[in-house]
Design brief:
The complex is a heterodimer of chains A (about 110) and B (about 120). Chain A is mainly β. Helices cover about 0% and strands about 60% of the residues of chain A. The mean pLDDT of chain B is about 95. The chains are: A mainly beta (about 110), B mainly beta (about 120).
């Protein structure tokens, strides 16, 4: 079964706006990762946040983690059309297994 | 080189055919993975190879048979598939099997259609 549930399922914004997507999970984790997938392609790793971290930045990306609420959020600032993709959170359910959330489909219109 | 290469990109096969998917990485990674992804769904783990040995099989039907001939190469042999097996098959690798510090690098996938 899936570890993470993401919302919203789909998000449509204009270029320049910020996009926020949320991920909730069920069990304890070592870290949480975010991946991007362009339509029908492979996934690309964006950022990893460890369970003892609360916030992390990478370029236009900001990730927060609240282990007490078992939730994470990904903020993309100043969105561009090229950010159009599906975004998945992923948690390490066990030593070797990475379990992906349901995903958020982001559409950024010019 | 941070690339995972999957071939073929597209594959159409009948239910009686035997075919193979190939995945290659030259990053020195010692863990390799097969995922299955249906449309608008997240990837689902199928198999994990750790140091060329099968370490996880997620109760995948025997019509899917993985093989890891060496540390750079991962195959998925397909036989007697069903139409519901049509999906995007993704290969990934990571430096070691320990996920506590690792990220996974994905190939572009093989789009499989079973007729």
């Amino acid at each position: 079964s899936q570890q993470g549930e993401e919302d919203p399922q789909a998000l449509s914004i204009q270029e320049g706006e910020n996009a926020t997507m949320n991920c909730s999970y069920k069990t304890s984790i070592n870290n949480l990762q975010w991946y991007r997938q362009n339509s029908g392609r492979g996934l690309v790793h964006l950022i990893l946040i460890r369970s003892n971290e609360r916030e992390k930045h990478s370029g236009r990306l900001r990730v927060t983690l609240d282990t007490s609420k078992k939730s994470s959020s990904l903020l993309i600032t100043a969105s561009r059309a090229a950010d159009t993709a599906s975004y998945f959170c992923a948690t390490d359910r066990s030593f070797q297994k990475l379990v992906f959330g349901t995903g958020t489909r982001l559409l950024v219109s010019p | 080189d941070t690339e995972v290469t999957q071939t073929p990109k597209h594959l159409v096969m009948g239910m009686t055919n035997k075919k193979s998917l190939k995945c290659e990485q030259h990053m020195g990674h010692r863990a390799m993975y097969w995922y299955k992804q249906k449309a608008k769904k997240p990837p689902e783990l199928m198999f994990v190879y750790s140091y060329e040995k099968l370490s996880i099989n997620e109760s995948v039907p025997s019509r899917f048979s993985p093989e890891c001939p060496n540390s750079s190469l991962l195959n998925l042999h397909l036989h007697a598939l069903q139409p519901e097996d049509s999906a995007l098959y993704l290969c990934a690798s990571s430096p070691t099997p320990a996920l506590a510090k690792n990220i996974q690098y994905f190939g572009a996938g093989t789009r499989l259609s079973v007729l």
